[in-house]
Amino acid sequence: MAHYYYYILCAMPKLRLAERNRPNVKSFLETRGHLILKEEWEEIKLLLLKNDCLNFFAILSEQESHIPLGIFSREQLEEGMKKSLGLPEFMLNFIPLFKSNQIEKADPLDGLLEGYYHYALERGCPFLQEWLTFERDLHNIVAGLRAKKLNLEPEKFILNQNDTSQLILKNFSSPDFAVGKKYPWLSELMIIMDAEDPIVLERKLDEIKWDRLEQMTRYIYFRSEVLISYFIKLIILERWLKVQPEKAEQILDITLTDLKSKEVVSSEQ
Predict the structure, then answer these.
(1) Residue whose C-alpha is closest to residue 172's, from 200, 141, 201
(2) Is residue 47 helix, strand or coil?
(3) Residue (of 175, 144, 176, 174) closest to 157 by Cα position
(4) What is the number of other CB atoms lying within 10 angstroms of the CB of residue 242?
(5) pTM for this prediction
């Protein structure tokens, strides 16, 4: 099996967070999709299901936006919602709660994402479980910091499903929610959030995610975990081009040094 992954991974271009010339998710699936094993497809589908959740929520909210990279087309989502069939149960269960305004979150989308993480963590491989747990922790830390800054109760902002979320709620008055030792980047993230520069914040969040993927695969070579990590990195890179295509190269050229200099200037102001 190691020879199989050697063949696939050596044929794929290296990725950097500031990379411009790289395969996108669509081209990756079109050119290498036939090489992906059935078990790995299941992991990739769990990752893409998050896009389906965003599209599903857009339909419920009567929005026209649609992210093309998901498991389901817009038509399939609409049909599944109409017939209550063919979609994950957590999505179907969300519909009556949303329509009756019973979502106990400041942002109803968080109620759907809470269901997504529970669903994906139950079905993902150990590597994907570790990644999704980290991604959810990062979401909760950012949500907690925002709630603290706005002097709001954190319960409606936190995806409350694991030890980290419980620590944030229990230690909400603490500057780092008692998770600073577990996540040493938290102090830097707090400075950036105080600066209120959304581009710098988004870039920093993706750096944190990228570094985590590097750590998770540092001593893993020709195995499925590296392929899954590669796919997640493609998703991270592609998001920049979709969010702000006219500024993508400028944003992706920001180095960590640039970020730190911006933090200092912003904090002094």
Answers:
(1) 141
(2) helix
(3) 144
(4) 12
(5) 0.85
